[in-house]
Amino acid sequence: MLRGRRIVIGVTGGIACYKTCELVRLCVKAGAEVKVVMTEHATEFVAPLTFETLSGHDVVVGMYGRNRAMSTEHIALARWADIVVIAPATANILAKAAHGIADDFLSTMIIATYSPVMFVPAMNTAMLKAPATQRNIPLLLESGYHITPTGKGELADGEVGEGRMIEPREIMHHLVRALPRAGLLAGKRVLVTAGPTEEPVDPVRVFTNRSSGKMGVALAEMAAGMGAHVTFVHGPLAVPPPIGADCMAVGTAQQMMDAVLARFQEANVLVMAAAVADYRPKVVADQKIKKTTDTLAIEMERTPDILASVARKKKQGQIVVGFAVETDVEKAEKRARERLQKKSLDMIALNVIGENGVGFGTDTNRVTLFCRDGLKTELPLMEKREVARAMWERIAALQAAGS
Ligand code: CTP
User: Fold this and answer.
1) Could you say which residues of the chain have pLDDT below 70?
2) Residue 81 buriedness (CB in 10 A; 0-12 / 13-18 / 19+)
3) How far apart are CA 259 and CA 253, in angstroms?
4) Both 107 and 217 in a single domain?
């Protein structure tokens, strides 16, 4: 999701430095090119070699770097970066940046960059609540810098309080949102649904299905990485929610429909990756059903069809994408094409379940895309995030053709 993005990570001297190693790894794994700048104090906590190994680039330390003169390197790096992330950000670096103090490589680069700068504070509660820090934070925000929240929990000094650095995945989430929107979906608003729905039977039981939400999460993360504003409406997920998306948790098919319809008007694209229940109990018992009989019959009724309702409200230029899950290879393509027509979709992604590595809970998927322009794209078995990329590329093409 960060393919081609250039990130400078500035590390200042706090124990939370160890979490920054994971942040660098996640960014590199997501496809970004990462360069690390450390203050002298940061090197007391983690050796530059660790960051050099993780990022694949030399680390700049202090004012002059480790091995060479760096007279203009801070300017070059400031221009190179799409975003500068300071993690952990101590009270000291917040104070320096708030007042334009440039007395080492990192603080000089912060003042020299035109790119967004995001601070990820980490300090003990007293330092966070100190009047100086509390003055500096609004000052930084007013100057256009981004500042992530801090977490609550056990701090390095054994106290429990506010000031912990947030976890690397959460930092990634803020980073993606602070990055200048660039890419195939720049400026687009997309709505993605994912996961199963849960239809209550009584206060303790639900009907649900085996969807993990992985495909929807991959679609949402990839869209955010490609520059879109992403809203993610989801049932209970077996995986962490997507990085970079606004998330909204729902339970039943009806709740998912209400959430989707409320947001569809503003969306350029809707991708329904959720495995929505087709039926729900006609009556939900208000007390727990007791096992008083040998058999139990529960009458079910159809849930609302979200795609069909959305299709009725679709405006010119909006793209609606559905998924089709089939187990019968022979009839799969015919059924997918029929559904494309019947539900007025722009694209349908067909999953034929049965093969290893395809479908619910797996990290890979094999999908065939059928589009309203008649094009059929058979994607090979690949990582769900690569399936997501291919789908967004096709969606962007449809949108360009339709506008
Ligand atoms: N879907 C929906 N609302 C429902 C059920 C499904 O919007 N109540 C969406 C799913 O998110 C998916 C697509 O419709 O994108 C699946 O279409 P559907 O006709 O339900 O497919 P299957 O369940 O595979 O079809 P069938 O029940 O006929 O086997």
Assistant:
1) 64-72, 403
2) buried
3) 10
4) no
Instruction: Tally the domains of the chain.
Output: 2
Instruction: Answer yes or no: is the C-beta of 325 below 6 A from any ligand 1 atom.
Output: yes
pLDDT digits (tens, 9 = 90+) for 81-119: 999 999 999 999 999 999 999 999 999 999 999 999 999
Evaluate: CB of 322 within 6 angstroms of ligand 1: yes
Catalytic sites, residue numbers: 209
Ligand 1 nearest-atom number relative to CA 274: 11
Minimum-distance ligand 1 atom for the alpha carbon of 253: 8
- Rounded CA gap, 19 and 60, in Å? 19
Domain containing 312 equals 189-400
Q: Can you give the pLDDT at residue 64?
A: 57
Pair 352, 304: CB distance under 8 Å = no
- The pLDDT value given to residue 67: 46
Specify whether the CB–CB gap between 198 and 235 falls below 8 A: yes
Distance CA 125, CA 176 (A): 27
| Structure tokens belonging to residue 247 | 């998330």
- Where do runs of H (alpha helix) occur along 30-165? 48-55, 73-80, 91-98, 105-112, 125-129, 131-142
* CB of 351 shorter than 6 A to ligand 1: no
CB contact at 8 A, 200 and 278: no
**pTM listed for this prediction:** 0.88
| Whether residues 196 and 149 fall in one domain | no
Q: Report pLDDT digits (tens) over 147-156.
A: 999 998 877 7
